[in-house]
Amino acid sequence: AQSVTQLDSQVPVFEEAPVELRCNYSSSVSVYLFWYVQYPNQGLQLLLKYLSGSTLVKGINGFEAEFNKSQTSFHLRKPSVHISDTAEYFCAVTRGASGGSYIPTFGRGTSLIVHP
Amino acid sequence: DVKVTQSSRYLVKRTGEKVFLECVQDMDHENMFWYRQDPGLGLRLIYFSYDVKMKEKGDIPEGYSVSREKKERFSLILESASTNQTSMYLCASRSGLAGGLNTQYFGPGTRLTVL
Fold first, then answer.
1. Of the candidates B7, B9, B12, B45, which has an alpha carbon nearest to the alpha carbon of residue B23?
2. Residues 41-100 of A with CB under 8 A from B
3. Cross-chain residue pair A44–B92, CB shorter than 8 Å
4. Under the phi-then-psi rule, with left for phi > 0, alpha for psi from -120 to 50, and beta for the rest, what region is A99?
5. pLDDT per residue as tens, chain A (116 positions)
6. How far apart are CA B87 and CA B84, in angstroms?
7. Would the CA dihedral through B69, B54, B57, B108 be positive or negative?
């Protein structure tokens, strides 16, 4: 079975500061990894995803994430946040080609709060 | 642009009522999902549909049923609403080709309150 742990339920940060949102996964098979963002009163939308290849993945709105297989992590980073980045962020995992569930498993979410 | 629409943004129902939540997608996606979102618990899968008339229970199916008679429409049914079903309900769709590597597309959500 696969699982996802988002280590921080809430991350407060000042505008223009860097931020890292942490995600660890558990799976015995290869995986695909996703970060979704949910702005207030909206559904989720894709920020970025890792399928294969380069471990550094760039997404929309200046976000990037690094896949680390040895640490089973997929942390999301942004070098300088804006007020408009205030949102809920979800990490998700599905199986790769060799087994496991292709139904996505989501973490519990991290609320990023950007202060002026 | 992929569009997933949900029939209501806000819904208020009474305990014991039968409730229908509708979801429609316009991208000819095979897979559709119903999630429930509660603070601190993230997204929990209620039901998943592989394709028309195909369904699979998720993590929390009790008290819910689903219907997928047409490819574009996936309905969630609360047979007898209870106060503990007060929540945000999110629908999503995804191409079924190549399975798990595809992006899910979400609707805006329905905030259901059961009194």
1. B7
2. 41-46, 49, 51, 90, 94-96
3. yes
4. left
5. 778 999 999 999 999 999 999 999 987 777 889 999 999 988 999 999 998 888 899 999 999 999 999 999 999 999 999 999 999 999 999 875 444 458 889 999 999 999 99
6. 8
7. negative
Nearest-by-CA chain B residue for A95: B100
Handedness of CA B41, B39, B32, B49 (dihedral sign): positive
Question: SS3 sequence, A47-106?
Answer: EEEECCCCCEEECHHHCEEEEECCCCEEEEEECCCCHHHCEEEEEEEEECCCCCCCCCEE
Which amino acid, B111? Answer: R
pLDDT for B112: 97
Least CB–CB distance from A49: residue in B42, B56, B103? B103
Residues B88, B111 contacting (CB under 8 angstroms): yes
Cα torsion through B68, B74, B79, B84, rounded to 10: 150
Task: Say how many CB pairs under 8 Å bridge A and B.
Answer: 55
B18-74 tens-digit pLDDT: 999 999 999 999 999 999 999 889 999 999 998 898 899 999 999 999 999 999 999
- What DSSP letter does each residue of A10-54 carry, written as one string? EEEEETT--EEE-EEEE-SS-EEEEEEEE-TTS-EEEEEEE-SS-
Mutate: best of B1, B48, B94, B102, partner A, most A CBs <10 A: B102
